[in-house]
Amino acid sequence: MTPWALGMPQKADKYQKSVEKCMPGILDKERIIAGTGFDRWLVPPAALAIHLCIGIAYGFSVFWLPLSKALGITSAVKCGPEVGFFAEIFSSTCDWKISTLGWMYTLFFVLLGSSAAIWGGWLERVGPRKAGVVSAVCWCGGMLISALGIHLHQFW
């Protein structure tokens, strides 16, 4: 019989707290061990989806030419000779050079490697579920910020 049925609220609070300690949250590390009857064929599609998200960076070269003609469509609208690198990043009146777009590619791999080094210990502590949710939020946020940058024609 539970403490609630006995009408003892002070014991009910203790009972509730002990139950909460025993039941890990859906993203907790304790929940990553598969139970009996788990279909292990669900793991390869999830791994494939993660690798496709990482691999999108290697397909970036497909977008270099269209991004270098975002304003001019058929031919690039060149910046004047007085426009320097930093002025070009914040300019919305001329198209980006392919060499400038290459810095975005470089920045991606620098941040990918440094984030693995910085957040790897946190991943080991909290488990893959929380790390997967956080990485999905960061990836989607990055895609939205990138879309906003292209829409506003800002390289920042």
Structure keywords:
156 residues, mainly alpha, 6 helices, elongated
What can you tell me about this protein's structure?
Helices cover 61% and strands 0% of the residues. By secondary structure, it is an all-alpha fold. The radius of gyration is 25 Å and the shape is elongated.
Summarize the structure.
This protein is 61% helix and 0% strand. The chain is mainly alpha-helical. It has a domain at 59-156.
Q: Give average pLDDT, whole number.
A: 81
The biggest beta sheet reads: none
Approximate helicity band: 55-70%
Number of H- or I-type helical stretches: 6
Number of strands: 0
How would the blueprint of this fold be written?
Layout: H1 9-22, H2 43-55, H3 61-68, H4 85-90, H5 98-126, H6 128-152
Helix pairs in contact: 5-6
